[in-house]
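Because discrete structure vocabularies remain unfamiliar, we first show an illustrative case, written as a sequence plus integers encoding its fold.
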Amino acid sequence: MVSLTADMSPLHPDRNLALELVRATEAAAIRSVPFIGRGQKELADGAAVDAMRAFLTTVNFDGLIVIGEGEKDNAPMLFNGEHVGTGRGPQCDIAVDPIDGTTLTAEGRNNALSVLAVSDRGTMLDASSVFYMDKIVTGPAGVGVVDIRLPVAENIERLAKALGKRVDELVVSVLNRPRHQKLIQEIRDAGAGTRLMSDGDVAGGINAARYNARTDMCIGVGGSPEGIVTASAIKALGGHIQGRLWPRDDDEKQRGIDAGLKLDDYVYEAEELVTGNNTIFVATGVTNGELVAGVRRSGGEHIVTESVVIRGASGTLRRITSEHLASKWL
């Protein structure tokens, strides 16, 4: 029996809120377009932040930014702890990433997204004091099968069996970083293929969990904020995600301890990253990618955006293609 509580109660984010939030990611993506391929990632990010916040102020909810652009002293808006929205309606935790892939945007490469995630107030882990997280993400076949504590070769073998594939048919996404050289070699030694990502941690995780995806697993160390955002979507998709915080030095480790985070190889399960299933994940393409198409001009008169909305309450992934009058954005 499907519960309707989340949709019926004004205290929880609902389907109407999900559609309102798309306007914010669309705006951020559209405002990023003039900076695609221009080598100016700070300007691209700034334009996206301004646009996203302007639209979030019009949404009927009381959103508390748990994962944002940083602390207030370093981020003039969309900072951790800031309230956004009209203050009316459901109280929500919110994670924002106006551009996931600023370098991708600046270099004109694929898989840049404008992203935000929402859940009930008090349900989203605030991992902002530790910048990096070691993660493993798969689709539903990996639930109860793979575990971040196991050697990567064993996880690959287990997942291949669960999927009914040969090991050499598996594709594993990993951020292409020096810290992952050993991990990449271990994946290849196990017999699986790799898809190396220059950026776009969120898209990599979601693509590994989607139905009929081209990749089967996403692993490695990426941003902690991206881990929380990804968890909001993975739970709605019925997939598997685990994370271990990865402090860069003793000072960062102590900040994490002071913030009440669990370190020393503690494994956060999906339910600890985002408590409950009443989540909303929204993403709009900035540049083209596997998850969504990027912003494009159509005939000079229209701007076309593609977005996905993933809701935990209903377990649905919806695609939204929007046509915007270009004259409204000039």
